[in-house]
Amino acid sequence: MSIASNVILENTRLGTTRTKIRNKLTEYGIWWDNSLTIFELAERLMMLFGVPILNIVKSNLITPGGFEYSVTLEDAGVPVDWWIDGVHSVVKTNSNGISAVTVPYVEGGSGTVVCKVGRKVAIDINYTCAPFESFEDYAWDYNTSAYDIVKYPSDISHTFNMAEVDYSEVYNLTKEVIAASVVMAIPNVFNNGIGGTNGIHISVGLYQKKDSNQGWGDAIALVNSKSLSNYRDTKILELGAYPGKRGLKYSTSDHVIQDVNVTTGQLTLDSQMYYFDLYYDNGYVKATIRHGNTTDFTHEADISDKITFDTFYPAIMIYDAGGHIQFESISIEPWTQEEENNGG
Description:
Largest sheet: 8 strands, antiparallel
Helix content: 10-25%
Shape: elongated
């Protein structure tokens, strides 16, 4: 047999083998295309017997900076198939056995991420893009480490621990009785702050307290800074309770506390659970205080002529001499005025 005949015969055999491998891969739902060599096809055929997946990292939320999805396998150089919004790519595992892709943040965006290791679906998830991560916490989780404590003066003493009201756990935030002082509990998931043009909803279930008649303020708030040189530094929008009053207040760089809308009437101290809800979206504010089916305060308005933010941090805040608060739950999520207009 001539060399040419041998070449033709060998090519025929390779073609037949390639076709058989492709058919087997198709049968078991393992990806291939015409660009793969016979050796790459055989590599994928070996994955028919199962490849252990050691770790999966995934999320249904993409925040600014994007999110890296990954799978970890035992070996390097293993081909892993990814589909981002239907577009396919192959990312082989690195020397640590990790195959990863990053999905970028696109304002208002959404899509899908699918990852297959051989015929095994490792990730199949719908994602949405949000300007920041939501946060939810309940006191019965005993999660005090989830909060940073910010205070002025910096040497003022404070307490942030667990307590109990009516046999239910609460976070207990207190401070030394000193006028012109503040202590804030800020969820540390927001260490880098939130861009001031983003909308936010803060909801907190809390008990109002006081430790002095010299004056006190208990509030949920958006604060512009965690580096304080004044107890009203620098911009603050708050929904709070005060001696004989409750409502919305704000202050800016002059540190002077101004009313947005305040109602006369003392909230019940110590024993009544209130739900404080503060909505803010780039100058638009909506706020409610309620207990049970009773609304104790409500107000909404455009306050962009009074206060805006470049960055803010959501905080639970006690200030003036006798500030003291206990809270059972907190929820923080993205929100927009458009949702309000659409009934959201």
